[in-house]
Design brief:
Length: 174
Amino acid sequence: MADRKLPNILITGTPGTGKTTMAELAAIKTGLHHIDVSALVKAEGLHEGHDTEFDTYILDEDKLLDALEIIVAPGGKIIDFHTCEIFPERWFDLVLVLGTDNTTLYDRLAERGYSQRKIQENVECEIMQVVQQAAGESYQPEIVVNLESTTPEQMEQNLDRLAQWLDDYVAKNA
């Protein structure tokens, strides 16, 4: 996949850090195609059932990876998911790890109606930088970028930075 004219970008982070919002806005701004992995898992039945305790689907990684392999092959995709280490390194040209302050994260998750246990688990993951660590261990350091995603201004700066990176990528791979 190294000869892609358009890159594949992974936007990852703890639930509530703004992945889907950024991916949707980035797709509009760049013309790349947004894939919300959580929605894909649900829509295509790429799971082994529902975990009622955590109110989430139990991911079938093999089914998901088989489905995504075809989707990402030509490039031009923005993949949005809270887990990053399951994806092959060769799929992505840029990995953006979003982070946010704990108060904002707590409020966002509470607004979604998450249980107190689920909120606590996700805030602890953010404090311990679980996704940042997983991205750092799963991908080459030169393609992993940690971005603060607490305010609308930060989101706009991140989108501008992504658009500039894409322009540079396209110019280099034309």
